[in-house]
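This section describes the prediction task in plain terms. A model, or a person checking by hand, is given the sequence of a single protein chain and must write out its three-dimensional structure as a string of tokens. No templates, partner chains or ligands are provided. The sample shown here is typical of the held-out split.
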Amino acid sequence: MKLSIVIPVYQVADSLPRCLDSISSQSFRDWQAILVDDASKDGSSAICDRYVKRDHRFQVVHLKRNGGLSVARNVGIEKARGQYITFVDSDDYIGDDTFKDLFEILSTHPDYDLLEYPVYEHYGSKKIHLLQFPKREYTDPLAYWLQGKAYSHTYAWNKIYRREVFQNVRYPERRNFEDAAVLPQLLRKCRTIATTDVGLYYYCYNSKGITENATAKDLTNLLETHTRMLKQIKDNFRRRRRRNDLEAYMPAYYAQVLNIQLDAYRAGGRISKYFPMLPYRNTFKLKLLHILGLKRLCQLHKLFHRSH
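The expected answer:
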């Protein structure tokens, strides 16, 4: 079997049929879809059972207790038997012929451990955005993270992974933005990472979703993930003991991490004691950081948003 598709399911009776239809109608046929019903109470369980009866490639695991997204994904990973694995959230769906197009690439590039493909972000809202990628290969995970800006699209879905990269790697339970924490672990196991301009994932806007309702704790967890990555990258540069061309891409990443810190402070009033002061001044906010200091910049940012 070529592909295992892990689909966490929780309280999505309205959108689940659209998701599953987009998979069953794929022209690529060599797959199993593992539906992990996370103790739904809205009829989603019955929908899962109906699709399992209709198509033997669907299988369902009904969890007795709600464990959350990470638990559901981890259960799916354990059940996966395909050479490759991918994830689809049950309120999203896949574009026509996406898997066929992706596996045409993988069949000619069996060395790829991870293949990332385009995604419509916030589909169905005014914030809709088509995230596109060039046809590109990376043999250095750090180049993919910095030059490819993987830090800004750490989504678990819109990627095809060789199943072996999940050996001894699982999603942290009861933690949101868990994909940002796990992707760096997976990248360390990849020899070749690629991006492509074919295929399409529809990440549908959900006003009740995690991203739209991130708490101070969620943002703090996300900040901790990225401040840890900043330290690891700087240590990596130091060990190489020579100028690294990837350092040119650090200011953009640092600016994004600063934005996460500002949002975390605005939501919960906390400043990470691990936030590093690095010498980048490439944006207005980074210049203010060095003039005002982190705490005063956070206070100013919060005051600005309160007045607008």
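For orientation: The chain has ten helices and twelve strands.
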